[in-house]
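Ticket opened by: R.M.
Priority: normal
Category: complex prediction / small molecule

The reporter submitted a protein together with IPT and asked that the result be attached to this ticket for the collaborator who will pick it up next week. Submitted input follows.
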Amino acid sequence: MTRDPRSAVSFAYVVDPAPGVGARPPRTTADSDAPSLSLNGLWEFRLDQGPWTGLPVPAHWQLHGHGSPAYTNVSYPFPIEPPFVPDDNPTGEYRRTFELPADWRPVAADAEPATRSLLRFDGVDSCFAVSLNGTPLGHAKGSRLAHEFEVGALLRAGTNIVEVLVHQWSSGSYLEDQDMWWLSGIFRDVTLLARPEPALDDFFVHADWNHVTGSGTLAIETAGTGVRLSVPELGLHDVDPAGPHLIERVEAWSAESPRRYDAVLRTDRETVRLQIGFRSIAVVDGVLLVNGAPITLRGVNRHEWHPEHGRALDRATMLQDVLLMKRHHVNAVRTSHYPPHSAFLELCDEYGLWVVDECDLETHGFEQVGWRRNPSDDPRWEEAMLDRMRRTVERDKNHPSVLFWSLGNEAGTGRNLAAMAQWCRSRDPERPIHYEGDRDSGYVDVYSRMYANHAEVDAIGRREEPPTDDPALDAHRRAVPFVLCEYAHAMGNGPGGLSEYQRLIDTYPRVAGGFVWEWIDHGIARTTADGRRWYAYGGDFGEPLHDGNFIADGLVFPDRTPSPGLIEFAKVITPIRFDLDLTLNAISVTNRYDFRSLDHLAFAWSVARDGHQVASGTLDFPETVAGDTSTLVTEDLLSSVGEVGEDGEDNQDAAELWLTVTARLAQDQPWAEAGHEMAWAQFPLDAEGFTSRAAASTPAAATSASASSASSSASSPWPAGLRDAVTAARLHVWRAPTDNDRGGGTRSLANRWAQAGLHRMRHRTIDDSTESGVRTVRTRAAAAASDLGLLATYRWRETDGGLRLDLAVEPDGEPAHWGDLTLPRLGLHLALPASLTQVAWFGLGPGESYRDSRAAVRIGRWSLSVPELQTPYVRPQENGNRSAARWAELTGSDGHGLRLEGLPTFDFAARPWSDAALAAAPHPHELTPDGILHLHLDLAHDGLGTASCGPGALPEHRLRPSKAEFSLLFRPVVVTATPQE
Ligand code: IPT
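Result attached by the on-call engineer:
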């Protein structure tokens, strides 16, 4: 489309670094009874002087067929020439008419008190000019910040017309280089507000809580005179809000118990309803205290995202985020990297989440040019940056959930950041200031790092980290709490290493916690011609410069289905821990909440023998307050375990007994229903004492469910071709690289595996002989052009009705020649008939797991179809591994199939495509079953780590080539009933 050649130069404000002209000073959001009129809905719209069409507000025009989305992470999608932007600057014209309600008095008659009117925009990306009835009101920048314009006498009784010109690029874009889609338009609410005089435009609630006395102090600064405050529950009726009012007993607000008090602020002409949360924030000796107690932040970074609507979120979606977070034990959110829609903060206040409220600021792309001309240190940008900070703090200051102010993200360092910090501190001395980019922590109150590895966090926890660049600042930094503002990059399969991070967070008081990067994959929903849904990432819209699927790095998939990463995170951070002491026959529960007791939970135990529950009961722990441990001596439980007899199915000697302990919600909580599982732990009952008791007691009938499946194998014939498919099993050491395997540029694991040719191993049979019923096949597997190889010896022997394989593997070549190369996996690949569609197994499940991400899976009997075994990462990659299977049965619809038994265990993945196809497909819908069931039976895997952004797998989770032995039993099987879980 040709654009008006004048547009680039005719709107000087677009490239003026100044924040704008005409908007009113920022103020708090408030629930006022003054009249308001939503201007959301269908507006007239045209892009670049094209034809007029309709466009909803709020929305991004790129998601409604005008232009297209573009994704870059750090790179600016335009030349770095601050404050200028290219001539090619998509510009949208919006207009709508509205009828002024009859009782809305734009201009007061003489005898009447005055009423002003404001036109409010909660979010316009990235720069806009607004006019009412043809008269310009002003222009503004700061996409995720609210702007209000006085419309006064311009408002007409009857029909009015509001026109908004929105520019995609502006000087403001230099300050908005967040890692997200570039999407434009009026994407948050537009409202006309009546402001009666005297105005109650702004107020600032200070509600402090004294943890020693349990008292609260309430003082509300108000702009305006004659304001009265009532908090009926606290006995305050029409008092002066300034107080201070000392309230002898008040319940504190915390993320765990978000107690709020309904309050009303009133002038003669306006009533504002608010909810007050009392709490105190303090730092003592480098430890973050809220309400006098150290708190642990189990956080996530949250971008606003909806796969169809982008950053135009409705309340239902925000609520969904909050509920999902609460149900998965997340207690903190960093609003990366801009203030969210204020309804989200309302929900955080209501349901209880600690918030790091971040200013709409990032200038990361300047890093690529050595931070030259970074706005953060250029006085021409001071006003713009201060304006952003003021708009953040003023809008959100009354949310008890807001714990820290954050200056922004990845904006380097400089005087303007220092000025923002200084302004913040003087405006709100009660909240600590966060900014990760300030490595010396000179102007912040929190020492923050992103992607620090475990060893660094450990050193910081011990207070033994290297000193700051500026020695004068060192003492300050050592006296402030530490947070990982980003860690555990949740891109694709992973993150690995969460348990180890949590151990550090739980160990060191100085480590206040962290925020996983990030909450949601920002995939954009698309549909294939035949109606299948998929999610687009960078490059899918033909962007000339983009960062691919780095946009898909969340704990939930774009449609908010929890990924295995979220399930793992929830298990790792659950604030309820169980321990079993077999020598004392004692089960204990530890309360790792910061404030609340465990009285909202109901505890139960069960024992399963070979995956079948054989006994169960409840556990009546005494009241356990935060930080405490309660112990129950488990005589009853032990005697019932003793009664666990044979269930007739398996050999008693081989039976596995597992104790599972659970904590579920005893009553409904606002965020989950009674019965929701909050914590669990499993303990093998095979240590001395426990099983011997069980074994010594008289076998009795199982006390509950027993075998409901019947599989027979001894006499089954091998289905056609299956035996050959089994004996054709070949050593396989590659996996379709995960995003984490691809992390780290040219030195990525994926590259090194490819260079070593692990994805194109050839097999050479050295010899194949049979002696005393044992067939021995010795092979060497190696890649073309490499002299490194793996010697594999397969020993096959008939057992009753089956085949036993003993595989021995050993690297061929000097260990030094292998260097520090890891193997993606060590196991076997089998090409089986695709008619095998169902997999039942006994082992860890039901979800996928890997060696450094397997806290969330438990021992049990599971059954899933082949499609259900796949995890649909936005970009296809290794997935779906099930760990520590004792046995597995793969069957077709006729019940015939293959049974595998581990000697003792194996990992498996079963998929309808090869690893090569999995690695090559850009999106899941591009994977096509190839007519084979690809079964991977693995002894071990390389860990997942988080090298897509951060450290790789810990040394103990690496798989190095070394001597290994792996034994399995294969049998034909006929399953006559589906196993019951
Ligand atoms: C870090 C960014 O702060 C965040 O926005 C996101 O881009 C994340 O990385 C990766 O997904 S910055 C990086 C240089 C560590």
